[in-house]
Amino acid sequence: MKLIWTILLVASLVALLFLWIKHKLSWSWFWKLSLQVVVAAVAIYIINVWQVIPQITIPINPVTIVTLVVLGIPGAMLLAGLQLFIV
Q1: Which of 11, 68, 73, 75 could form a disulfide with 40 if both were Cys (CB 3.0 to 4.6 A apart)?
Q2: Structure confidence by residue, pLDDT tens digits, 51-85
């Protein structure tokens, strides 16, 4: 099973590399995405350190980072609400 996943990963990487070279995409999207991920991680860190709401600590993991990157400030409020009322 690991062999199948490895082959699938390598094939996907080759396909992406081929498309990147064929269309001559710039790295600007990569830098913008990287900046958004860093800002999201820092925002979660600040929320946890400053204890904006004393009962809430939002873990820094890929799901919370993606939520903040995609949704922004409303995503932070969503995570805080989920943490406060569901967890």
Answers
A1: 68
A2: 877 888 888 888 888 888 888 888 888 888 888 88
What is the per-residue pLDDT across 6-18, written as a single tens digit (0 to 9) for each?
A: 888 889 888 888 8
Q: Please indicate, yes or no, whether the overall pTM of this predicted structure exceeds 0.70.
A: no
DSSP-H helix ranges across 24-85: 28-50, 62-71, 73-85
SS3 8: helix
Q: Specify the number of domains making up the chain.
A: 1
Closest CA to 44 of 78, 70, 68: 68
Residue range(s) defining the domain that contains residue 43: 26-85
